[in-house]
Amino acid sequence: MKTTFISLLILFLLCNDFNMIAQSRGNIKLNIIVFGGHPDDADNKAGGTAALFAEMGHRVKFVSVTNGDAGHFELGGAALAEIRRKEAEEAGRQLKIAAYVVLDNHDGKLLPTLDIRDQIIREIRNWEADIVLTHRPVDYHPDHRYTGVLVQDAAYVVIVPNITPDTPPLKKNPVFLYLEDHFQKPTPFQPDIAVDITNTFDKKINALDAHKSQMYEWLPWTNNTLELVPENEDKRKEWLSNNRSGSITPGERESLKKWYGKEKGESVEYAESFEICEYGRQPSEEEIRKLFPMLNQ
Description:
Elements: H1 2-24, E1 31-36, H2 41-55, E2 59-64, H3 77-95, E3 99-102, H4 114-126, E4 131-134, H5 142-157, E5 175-179, E6 193-196, H6 201-210, H7 212-222, H8 233-244, H9 250-260, H10 262-267, E7 271-276, H11 285-291
Parallel strand pairs: 1-2, 1-4, 2-3, 4-5
Antiparallel strand pairs: 5-7, 6-7
């Protein structure tokens, strides 16, 4: 009997040690959810990071808060919404994320109402999210702004049982983060976390390429550059890659050096950055490294 007890105790200690090692190596599976205003926003702002999480075995879900039914110069309504839903599904396959959901709220008409806040709360709770990402509520597009407001408004109440009681509350508040933008007023974006996506940049471009109605039609039309879009499919993707490569800002470069070290941080070619929202859980540097295990590689 004593031998059995000692054997069980040793087994318990070994399992506990294993769990600690797994956490330190980032082997604990994380649940990440990204809210975009439209069916291509999450891909554009976090596609490379999402692909990295997916490659490491973590669960990533993209949610478009509107159905995109206004984003075209020739198409519209239910027909366009269906096209954009299928494009989003294909983008999700390209990134190999677990899910890509398009909510049925009209494009260009989003408001921070209680019923849509309930939708957001349910998505976060049902995904048992550890990390939640979305737009800052400072943006040129009202759908982006109000998506940010809706997610901000959910940042505390996801743990409150009497709010949206049809869905069990989370036991702890997730870490909420903002997606990168270039807007300066009232405050510029702060790259608290910068992720090297050099190895998944092609996956990000493949995902954006899936949004053909946007990348090759609607967005060039709004920019008066539709005539510059190549006809050839391969050249189109090359053109898209050149237009979506972006440049690493000085602040982002400093953040990369902080998380990856000076040598690697200076050599990163492509990156995505995120700002910690004050309304969710405030993570320590140690916790950030657990939540973003790619920073440890």
